[in-house]
User: Fold this.
Amino acid sequence: MTAVLVGIEQGDIGIAGLAASGILVAVAVAISLWRQLGLARSLLWAALRALVQLLLVGWVLQFVVDPDDPLYWSALWIISMVTFAAWTTSRRARDVPNVLALSLVSYLAASVVVLGVLFGFQIYDFEGRTLVPLAGMVIGNSLAATVLVSRQLLIAADEQRDLIEGRLALGLSAADAYKPHLRQALRTALVPQIETTKAVGIVFLPGAMVGLILAGVEPSDAVKVQVSVMYLVLGSVATTTAVMSLGISRELFTPAQQLRRITRQSDS
Amino acid sequence: MYEACQISAKFVCCARRRCATISATLRQVSGTNAFVLEQVEAGMPDDPILRSIDVTIPATGVTVLAGPSGAGKTTLLRLLNRLDDPLSGEIYWKGRPLSDWDPTELRRRVAMVFQRPPLFPGSVYENFQVALPDISNERALHVLEHVGLSADMLDQDATTLSGGEAQRMCVARALLTEPEVLLADEPTAALDSAARHTVEDLGRSLADSGVAVVWVSHDTDQLRRLADHVIVLADGLVRATGTLADLDTSHDSVVRQSVGAA
Assistant:
């Protein structure tokens, strides 16, 4: 890891470099204006937001990752990330019963499992510098899949109610009656991640690896980090979606194995 | 004064006990397999569909639940295998409250077919496996024959069956759990005339073979062809119960209309 971190320090593009990279935003804005896409303001706003958010995060991170700082700052940071991710999930899948608590449990479970493996097997050194970014990868990459699986499960419970109740009426337990829909929702959430993992290196070079190489790290070292990150993302997505879907499937049924009536307000 | 109060309290206590005993006895004498509903209220808590239902559903033959749309027929049917629970009141089957039954066991003994037959992905055989995972080929063919479907349909994709075939396949699938009661929620509503008669005949033959059938119907002709016993629901209440002969002579126009009396 030392070589990697030294490399990053060598890769400072400077304020001028950062400003110059803004030309590419200007290109996107120009295209929007030329083709009358009406996205110029959104593009500028997104670019500005990303810059400010990341500068802020970078500023705060320098305190959190300071080797002299106690790890509880990192722990606090992770708790904030988990809470914010759970809140975001609950906003995007608001019709799911008890969604906030389920999301919290899912993200915490994924953090414990994935970080447990990464630090338990000493793949990375256990310090703020590694803990916070890795936890960020776990939570950030699981968010979209968790929202997707939640919505899919709710849609199945609503639109395929006749099939689920058909199975219940044959004496199947709620878990067995819902199993095909649970499987389908999990597949829908996981398949994109699996495809991304398969295509890596051939179709695209992932951001973390590109960042490390640009920062001067040896490509062979960057690859090792990237592969571990890809596995981290796979494990995180699988864990959060599995915990979330099991939780949701329990919420959708009563103790008497009856499918609850859920009102879907919107899928937006 | 104190003694009088004691006597009065004893009387009330005895009267309550006697009432409970009489109620239990009623549940037993009304047939071991009969459903007994006591003060049942069901539907949405703020707007119940069934309001204080007291009725006994016989354990033999075909009982038709009739009445105008929105009367609560389907709501009542879904209570009998606990796809839904009542808001209040109690339902007994075989003398035991339904809430004491394990729902999965109850549903295998009190099977149900729906208005729109739920077809699971895969072949007819795979549909049978949902009800009975280790079903033999022989058993599958036997049950197909029982409902009047040909043996070569066993490997057919269930979603390609016609409406009548699909409904009969669903009855066959439900019969695999060897139910004592079959609940049928307007099973012929979406079928053409020929398919309707085939499914009706199937219902009748099941009742004759000892499976009690509780059948929801809007169709008064069908009711008159099938019913051994009729329960007329209206506005969430039981309007009348009895045989066709009983109800044909009713003075209540809603009842006469519901059973298609001349």
